[in-house]
Amino acid sequence: MKGGLMVILYTGLFLVLSPMASAFDYESLEEEIKARLRKGEVVTLSKRPDETADPDKRFVTLAQLLDGTQRELWDVIHDKEDAELFVDGVLESKVIESSETEILVEQKTRVGGPKGAYYYQLRHTLTPFSRSDFEFVTGEMRDVIGSWWILDGPDEKRCLVVYTLHIDPGIFAPQIVVKRGMKKSMPGTLKSMQREVLKRRETNRNETR
Q: What is the tens place of the pLDDT at every residue in 67-88?
């Protein structure tokens, strides 16, 4: 009996501590945030979806409900070869290495800071159709870290897309200034993704007529 009780207590403790016990999804958000999302607003979140402790204050984390299936959104978000054609701020983009679980991408984007635009390489670790984490490899900046999440939304037509990002261009670019710029530019990235999803859907519809 004592052994069984210890197992129950241990299991309960594990569930409390496990990230799965506080899984992030649309329904877990506060009602005020869900109401704003349903209106189409871009919402700033206090934590990233995978954070269960105090938030890492380096990151800017935004969420929005986008029209599209997880597959449609994933195909656009991870089209790095054509990103310069439809993503605001991306000036050049190409895939250097690619596998089912990782891609290495070289890009030039407008970031702000003293140079304005920077070259860099990012390695993306992929969980197809739901999550991608990327990190800085080399380039003209000090650091870039971020993630994309594509999660179920309030209905079958929309997904909750969460975009979290930290950029450090280096000296002469204070983080307070960089983050202010990111909060202005990141909604444009989400808007670019939505616009491209709808464009591709319409193209596919016309081609099948």
A: 999 999 999 999 999 999 999 8
Residue 152 resides in a domain:
yes
CATH of the domain at 132: 3.30.530.20
In whole angstroms, what is the distance from residue 17 CA to residue 155 CA?
Answer: 30
Measured at the CA of 112, the angle between CA 140 and CA 171, to 5 degrees, comes to 55
Structural tokens at position 173: 């670019």
Cα of 5 vs its chain's centroid, Å? 42
Q: What is the pLDDT of residue 190?
A: 97
pTM score, whole prediction: 0.85
Beta strands in 68-101 (DSSP E): 90-98
CA of residue 84 relative to chain centroid, distance: 18
Question: Which among 164, 172, 130, 127 is positioned nearest to 147, based on CA atoms?
Answer: 164
> In which domain, by residue range, is 90 found?
26-207
Q: What angle do CA 66, 84, 124 make, to 5 degrees?
A: 70
